[in-house]
Amino acid sequence: MPRTSFKIAVGAAATAVTAAGIPVVLASPALSHGYTTSPVSRSSNCATGKVKNCGAIQWEPQSVEGPKGFPARGPADGKICAAGDGRWAPLDDPRGGQWPATRVTGGQAYTFSWRLTAVHSTSSFRYFVTKDGWNPSAPLTRAQLDLTPFLQRDYGGKSPGSNPSHPGTMPAKQGRHLILAVWDVADTGNAFYSCADVDFG
């Protein structure tokens, strides 16, 4: 087949595939995606069907990506759990404080785990917890969080692997709280945000 005819045929095939709703995969760098599995994140609860009426996040629990630099920058207050992305807005809905909560013990050793569906060079993983007296029936804001991470793991640009885990200690808390995990990507302007409801008893 002459080169010109080949180019036309390839272009027509790509157009037909796109029109059929099948994505055309182009060679490009892999993008990072991920969410916490321990404690169980809101994204994970939606993906497994434990929580209903989550919208599109049930199919893309790994895609909660927004600007990095938290807490000085990043998602606006009230939109933190969805990383400021309107597609994932159900994650910001407190549901009257009724999200399923992982039972944990304050002051005890705990291993925080992620599932990454695409790995990227990493600056750090950081973990924040809500203050005593926070309002679980309201969307998360900076004022409700202790803005110093209770756990941080630095990677210096290295890859974390597909299932990173971070041994640490749970904060000394009681009752229901929210843990915000932030995965800071090293070579883009973004981070991944993962909110997990916990119950310290």
TrEMBL record:
Region ranges (Disordered): 151-171
SUPFAM superfamilies xref list:
E set domains (SSF81296)
Instruction: List the coiled-coil residues.
Output: none
CDD domains membership: LPMO_AA10
Q: Which InterPro entries match?
A: Cellulose/chitin-bd_N (IPR004302), GlcNAc_Chitin_IntDeg (IPR051024), Ig_E-set (IPR014756)
Keywords attached to this Swiss-Prot or TrEMBL record, sorted alphabetically, are: Monooxygenase, Oxidoreductase, Signal
Q: Superkingdom of this entry's organism?
A: Bacteria
Domain (Chitin-binding type-4) spans 33-198
Point out the signal peptide segment.
Answer: 1-27
A GO MF annotation of the entry reads: monooxygenase activity
Which Pfam families does the entry link to?
A: LPMO_10
Fetch the PANTHER family from UniProt: CHITIN-BINDING TYPE-4 DOMAIN-CONTAINING PROTEIN (PTHR34823:SF1), GLCNAC-BINDING PROTEIN A (PTHR34823)
Protein name per UniProt? Lytic polysaccharide monooxygenase
Origin species, per record, is Actinomadura yumaensis
